[in-house]
Amino acid sequence: MVTAFVFIVWHEGNALIAPSLCEIGKLPADLPVAPVQFPSSSGATLHGWLVNGRTDKGVVILMHGIRANRLQMVGQAEFLFREGYSVLLFDFQAHGESVGKHITAGYLESRDAAAAVGFIRQKFPGKKICVAGFSMGGAAAVLAEPPLPVDAMILQSVYPTIEQAITDRLRSRFGWLGTLGTPCLTWQLKPRLGFGVHDLCPVRHVGKITVPKFFIAGTSDRDTTLPESQALFDAAAEPKQIWLVQDAGHVDMLSFAKNEFEKRVLDFLAKNLN
Questions:
Q1: Do 154 and 130 contact (CB within 8 A), yes or no?
Q2: How much of the chain, in percent, has pLDDT values that exceed 70?
Q3: Greatest CA span in the chain, whole angstroms?
Q4: In which band, very low, low, confident or very high, does the pLDDT at 3 lie, cut at 50, 70 and 90?
């Protein structure tokens, strides 16, 4: 019985960190993107698309969620480019076309976030930059050390700690009994990946980030609950603002409340990026 339990837990751990690689395919028809590649200290060469906007507008770096890739962010890139912004979409290590050994829920991906900012700094010297991350993408932006040298951040549905993130997902799948599996998964981090739960705590880092931050969270999100989103916001340094999207779950808010999402994001960018 014990052997079977250990096997199941180890197998679940394998599934959580397994790479999510795929061929991205054709370029989006509605975006004049140019394929780009740049190295990251995560060990990966990151693959992405760059869209050149107007010279009087800043740059937005879009960062996708776990087990996704840059295609998740195409909708946001389209409306941002329509408003004149330059946009970078890229695949984190172990995602999409950016080869890596393991998904690390933000740990190595934070190095990718820093690499993306460095790439844009070289490409557009002097331009203002905003990073906009969904879920793991937002966590990667917050976890970067030192804090990313950007002018603004948009953080959507970001977990405060990896323990809470795992617990929420287990509870959603298996009910309260599933929460008993959290320590069985978190103890695997050190032997498998070389870091522990304390290295995946955005709530401990967000207070160091002093640029304007726009938090977005769904009131019905079961993967990052409303109290957790509120706790992350409360821990953040000023200046900051939050939008709680009524009845939204753990989804890209562009797909849930398109008009309101575009309006609020563009207002935030107009104040902090132009």
A1: yes
A2: 94
A3: 65
A4: very low
Distances (CA, A) of 168 to 23, 190, 216, 252: 30, 21, 18, 18
Q: Where are the domains of the chain?
A: 31-160+208-272
Q: Provide the 8-state DSSP code for 208.
A: G
Amino acid at 256: F
Which 8-state DSSP code applies to residue 245? E
227-243 residue pLDDT tens: 999 999 999 999 999 99
For residues 24-63, b (16+ Cβ closer than 10 Å) or e, as one string? Answer: beeebeebebeebebebebebebbbbbbebeeebbbbbbb
pTM, full prediction: 0.94
Q: What is the pLDDT of residue 7?
A: 45
Ramachandran region of residue 86, left (φ > 0), alpha (ψ -120 to 50) or beta?
A: beta
The fourth-level CATH superfamily of domain 31-160+208-272 is Alpha/Beta hydrolase fold, catalytic domain (3.40.50.1820)
